[in-house]
């Protein structure tokens, strides 16, 4: 009931959405920057929640030579420097996952994923080869970062930060989380008080 008091909004967005309609050949040729999404390479970004939320969808700007599936997952982190506890995302810190369909050519794609999240640090992770996902593709990097997103990647059997020293300086992804903000108890009380006052006033006016 609490979550339904607000409409779904964008809770987190790593970067703006760049031009869509990019072909696989353009990405392969390096005309438009992109990063592999496959069973040995996962792409993700950390984010922090200042208020509890109920998620509704995750997604971003992706493409593939075919229209197969890839996965998206939400992982709980200990802090702003933490990584997922496992490379195969089989540990309890993985709170939920969903399958998305690669667009061809590129486009923004999303999939439903409903999870209640408290305040704290989390990561969005996208890849293939797990949770029934079977197709390789790419995440576009033709937008503009919003703020200073903390990108991570699973490459070479280990999690890494995106940085020049790690040889994986990623930026400008469009990765998104949508959901509803759970009102704090005081806000909820004020909402019901205001509603009760309006109802009382309308009843009084009819007398």
Describe it for me?
- With 207 residues, the chain is mainly β.
- The chain has a single domain (3-182), classed as Jelly Rolls, CATH 2.60.120.
- It contains two helices and 13 strands, in the order βαββββββββββββα.
- The strands form two sheets. Strands 1, 2, 4, 7, 8, 10 and 13 form a seven-stranded antiparallel sheet that branches.
- Strand 11 (150-155) and strand 12 (158-161) form a beta hairpin.
- The model is unreliable at 1-5 and 185-201 (pLDDT under 50).
What general form does the structure show? globular
Number of helices: 2
Low-confidence stretches: 1-5, 185-201
CATH architecture: Sandwich
Q: Share of helix among residues?
A: 10-25%
Q: Give the oligomer, counting copies of the same chain as homo and different chains as hetero.
A: single chain
For the biggest sheet, the summary is: 7 strands, antiparallel
- Average pLDDT works out at 87
Strand content: 35-45%
Strand elements, count? 13
Per the CATH scheme, the topology name is Jelly Rolls
Domain tally: 1
Overall structural class, as computed from helix and strand content, comes to: mainly beta
The CATH class: Mainly Beta
Helix and strand run: EHEEEEEEEEEEEEH
**C-alpha Rg (nearest Å):** 20 Å
State the end-to-end distance.
Answer: 32 Å
């Amino acid at each position: 009931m609490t979550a339904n008091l607000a409409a779904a909004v964008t809770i987190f967005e790593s970067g703006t959405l760049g031009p869509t309609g990019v072909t696989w050949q353009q990405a392969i040729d390096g005309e438009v920057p992109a990063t592999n999404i496959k069973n040995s390479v996962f792409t993700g970004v950390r984010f922090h929640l200042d208020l509890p939320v109920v998620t509704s969808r995750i997604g971003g700007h992706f493409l593939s030579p075919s229209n197969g599936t890839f996965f998206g997952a939400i992982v709980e982190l200990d802090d702003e420097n933490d990584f997922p506890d496992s490379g195969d995302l089989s540990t309890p810190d993985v709170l939920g996952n969903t399958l998305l369909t690669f667009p061809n050519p590129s486009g923004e794609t999303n999939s439903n994923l409903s999870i209640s999240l408290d305040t704290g640090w989390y990561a969005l992770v996208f890849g293939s080869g797990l949770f029934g996902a079977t197709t390789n593709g790419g995440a576009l990097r033709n937008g503009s970062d919003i703020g200073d997103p903390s990108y991570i990647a699973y490459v070479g059997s280990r999690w890494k930060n995106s940085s020049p020293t790690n040889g994986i300086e990623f930026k400008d992804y469009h990765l998104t989380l949508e959901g509803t903000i759970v009102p704090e108890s005081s806000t909820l009380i004020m909402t019901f008080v205001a509603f009760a006052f309006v109802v009382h006033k309308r009843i009084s006016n009819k007398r």
